[in-house]
Each structure stands twice: as structure tokens, then as C-alpha cells.
Write a structure and sequence with these properties.
Length: 200
């Protein structure tokens, strides 16, 4: 058998050699390995930049799509509300001549009160009153200018102008027909005559 002291020395020498090899490998990694790790690091950084750019682009597209959807919702809501309020515009315009004819019938009956049947006049007046109620329920408002009011081009239509003494220019001198509003929209302007009297 060999000398146990020699075996221990050999064992210690082997450990020291292994440690030296490990240190040499570490040193080689630190010196030469740093040069090799740099390209991998740059590659990882550029990949990360590409992912960030893609994330930002997707976020931007998502925010735009969200804004478009919100605008479309608001537009649809506005269109729905307008359809509810103004959807009956054509029907309302078609009813205006009925109103005019009832007004004319009452005016004619009052002028010829001796021959007109009282029951018939009352019936026409009740029909006109009911038509007023229907108009009111559906947001239709009668524009009834009076003689002496100022002419408003937003609500009135001048059918003629005449120099009437005792009036001023732009003053209503005759009302031919009432006007009508559907909520805030003009269905028909009131038809009026306007004074063209110049100031003296």
C-alpha cells in the first residue's frame, strides 16, 4: 500500500489544480466573455425596443377605436333623440292647412252670425281646440304675431310691404296666417304684411 501522507498530498494538489483551473476559466470569461455577451445584450435590448413600439402602436389604435366607438354611440343617441322629436315633421306640416281652414271657417261664421248655425260654429271651435291640444302634446307651438309687433325674419314671412301712416318701418300691419314651431324648429313662418313707412 502507498504512503497515506503521499496520497493526501496528491489529493490536495489535485484540488489546488482544479481551483486554479476554475479561476483561470472565470478570468477568461471576464475578459473574453464580456466581448461575447455584448452582442446578445444589444440583441435583447433591440427586441425589447421593438416590443415597446408595437405595444405603443397597439395602445394608440385601441384608444382611437375606443374614441370612434364613443363618437358613434353619441351620434346614434343624438339621431334617436332627433327622430323622436322631429320625426313627425311631415305629418305636422300636412296638418297645418287643416288648422288654417278651421280658423277661416270660424272667422266666416262670426261675420255671418245671423245665418250660421250656432251648433255648427261650436263644433268647429271644439275641433280647433282639440287640434290645439294635439299640437301641444307633440311640441307644435302656434306663432301668432299681432298687428304692431316687430317683424322677425326668423319667425315671420313678409308677404307685402306698404307705407301705412302712423306706423314705423318693420312693424307688422296685417297677419295673413299663423306660423308654427316644432319644438325649436320653424315648421312654417307666420305670413304678415309689414310697414315700409319711412321716418319723417
Amino acid at each position: 500500500m502507498g504512503d497515506p501522507k503521499r496520497d493526501d498530498d496528491q489529493f490536495l494538489d489535485d484540488i489546488e489544480a482544479l481551483e486554479a483551473e476554475a479561476e483561470a476559466a472565470e478570468a477568461a470569461e471576464d475578459s473574453g466573455g464580456a466581448g461575447r455577451a455584448a452582442p446578445a445584450e444589444d440583441e435583447g435590448e433591440s427586441e425589447l425596443d421593438a416590443l415597446r413600439a408595437e405595444r405603443d402602436e397597439l395602445k394608440d389604435r385601441f384608444m382611437r377605436a375606443l374614441a370612434d366607438a364613443e363618437n358613434a354611440r353619441k351620434r346614434a343617441d343624438k339621431d334617436r333623440r332627433e327622430a323622436e322629436r322631429y320625426g313627425a315633421t311631415r305629418l305636422a306640416r300636412d296638418l297645418l292647412p287643416v288648422y288654417d281652414n278651421l280658423q277661416r271657417a270660424i272667422a266666416a261664421a262670426r261675420e255671418e252670425s245671423q245665418t250660421a248655425s250656432t251648433a255648427l260654429v261650436e263644433g268647429v271651435e271644439l275641433t280647433l281646440k282639440e287640434l290645439h291640444n294635439v299640437f301641444h302634446r307633440h311640441g307644435i307651438e302656434v306663432v301668432s304675431p299681432q298687428v304692431g309687433d316687430r317683424f322677425d325674419p326668423n319667425l315671420h314671412e313678409a308677404m307685402f310691404e306698404a307705407p301705412v301712416p302712423g306706423t314705423t318701418a318693420g312693424e307688422i300691419i296685417q297677419v295673413s296666417a299663423d306660423g308654427f314651431l316644432l319644438y325649436d324648429r320653424l315648421l312654417r313662418p307666420a305670413q304678415v304684411g309689414v310697414s315700409s313707412m319711412k321716418a319723417s
